[in-house]
Model the fold of this input.
Amino acid sequence: MTELIESLLRGLGTGSVYALLALGFVIIYKATRVISFAQPAFMLAGVVAVTYLTPAVGFWAAVPLAALGTALLALGVERTAVRPMVGRPAFVVAIITLGVDVAVRVVVNAFIGLDVRHVGDPWGLRTLALGPVEMQQRHLAAVVAAALLVAGLFAFFRFTRTGLAMRAAALDQEAALAHGVSVGAVFAVSWALAGGLAAVAGTFAAAGASVDSALWLIALTALPVIILGGLDSLPGAVIGGLAVGVLQELVATYANDVAWLGGNVSVITPYVLMLLVLLVRPYGLFGTREVERV
Done:
């Protein structure tokens, strides 16, 4: 039982990282109807920024500063590379974001260099004892940070003028324009929010480990998460991220008991889960079913 609970707690910590990454994907998709493949690059850029800022200002100041810097980077990408593509087919814009991802990661890799870099988090791999159950402090911090950010995002979308404008543009861009909503500003805010979330998620993904050029691969797990939860569903991104994280950790814990599965089957678990869900619900668990009139 102890092993099961510890696996669940690890899964919630990992799932919180996936949820933050998935939220960035969904926010951009709801605003622009385009899947941004630049999120892994923003995640890596944010983490590397934290490694440089932490010695100067400390970890707690470095994370929000890195998130702000990454948000500005994402905003700049939207203005220069994505905004001119408005009106083009969605797959064209998606390919542009893929090119942006490669370009940004090449630049960021130059700042990683050959030295071993750490985010300088205050937890490392230290554990917290909850009776007979032990939980790594970084996982607890990831859960708390994700909960606060998700609550802040939902309050932002529900109670602020900008959030209401983003919701209106997500529902119907032409109607939003007719009512005076600046769709361009909505696009910009969406990319900035996604960039900031990617930086925070990457910080917790790298906590207790070294930062290298392969860290961006973690962001790829957010793709099955958003398909699972629904491309246009913010609650789906959160629930899907937590579900994938928990399932992945459970498989990693117990797969060794089944000899023919092998030790790395947890790596493909998110994709297997995604395929199973798509067979039953092609629009994801919480995605909006599109109805086309002929």
Q: What stands out?
A: The chain has eleven helices and four strands. The longest helix spans residues 2-32. The chain has a mean pLDDT of 87.
